[in-house]
Amino acid sequence: RKEVEQDPGPFNVPEGATVAFNCTYSNSASQSFFWYRQDCRKEPKLLMSVYSSGNEDGRFTAQLNRASQYISLLIRDSKLSDSATYLCVVNRRGTYKYIFGTGTRLKVLA
Amino acid sequence: GAVVSQHPSRVICKSGTSVKIECRSLDFQATTMFWYRQFPKQSLMLMATSNEGSKATYEQGVEKDKFLINHASLTLSTLTVTSAHPEDSSFYICSASGGSSTDTQYFGPGTRLTVL
Questions:
Q1: H-helix or E-strand containing B44?
Q2: Which residue from B minimizes the CA distance to A98?
Q3: Minimal CA–CA distance to B112: which of B44, B50, B38, B43?
Q4: From B112, which residue of chain A is nearest by alpha-carbon distance?
Q5: Are A95 and B101 a contacting pair at CB < 8 A?
Q6: Is A43 within 8 Å of B34 when comparing Cβ atoms?
């Protein structure tokens, strides 16, 4: 079983739709959680960190459920420019290492 | 956010040659730098972690004699792929952080290596 698991998709949604991704992690010692966005043939870019209290940045909302060991990302009012692969990233307590999920591919259709 | 550069962005080389990739943190001191490899349609896989002035720590299955890492200063780390073979063709990405285990990692733009 992979340490960080994501549904690879693709999720094909119309412009303006709301879409949600989940990610599960298996190591309970995980400490920090992030969502990164990666465009085709580009490097990952930090979208947002994820906190236990949940956090929102414009159209994006991230939630962390430590008891169930999953994190989620909600995108409201999808734009064509949101089309990308969304990577769930987990950092283990006491290490510098990021563990990446395989990513969830989103396509927003006109 | 912080800026990390990588050079070259793309390299094509013949089998058996060595290729050096540079990773620089432009506006902060990177105590720790990371090297990842990403094959098509797969996730980033950590190859090694390097701390300034000390030897890199390699992940299981990564040959340290084939992938030489040097982190000589707080702003520069290099990855040298020695005696490259076609199976080494991949997207190599570095990242840098300030060093605390919860610090965000900032990624370079990546280097696409093609070995003929």
A1: none
A2: B46
A3: B38
A4: A41
A5: yes
A6: no
Full 3-state SS string of A57-89: ECCEEEEEECCCCEEEEEECCCCHHHCEEEEEE
pLDDT at B21 over 70: yes
| CB-CB under 8 Å, B44 with A44 | yes
User: Which tokens sit at B95?
Assistant: 């990242």
**Alpha carbons B67 and B80: distance in angstroms, whole number:** 6
B22 vs A73, A82, B59, B88, B92, CA distance in Å? 33, 30, 20, 17, 11
pLDDT tens-digit readout, B24-83: 999 888 888 999 999 988 889 999 999 888 889 999 999 999 999 998 888 999 999 999
Whether chain A has a CB inside 8 Å of the CB on B61: the answer is no
Give the CA radius of gyration of chain B: 13
Residue A6 region by backbone torsions, left for phi larger than 0, else alpha for psi between -120 and 50, else beta: beta
DSSP 8-state class, residue B105: P
Q: Among B32, B93, B112, select the one facing A96 at the smallest CB separation.
A: B32
- How far apart, in Å, are the Cα atoms of B16 and each of A46, B76, B83, B85? 36, 25, 4, 6
Chain A residues whose CB is inside 8 A of the B106 CB are 46
Q: What is the pLDDT of residue A70?
A: 93
What region does A22 belong to: left with phi over 0, alpha with psi -120 to 50, or beta? Answer: beta
Under 8 Å between Cβ of B78 and A10: no
Give residue A94's pLDDT.
Answer: 73
Q: Show residues of chain A in contact with B102, CB under 8 Å.
A: 31-32, 91
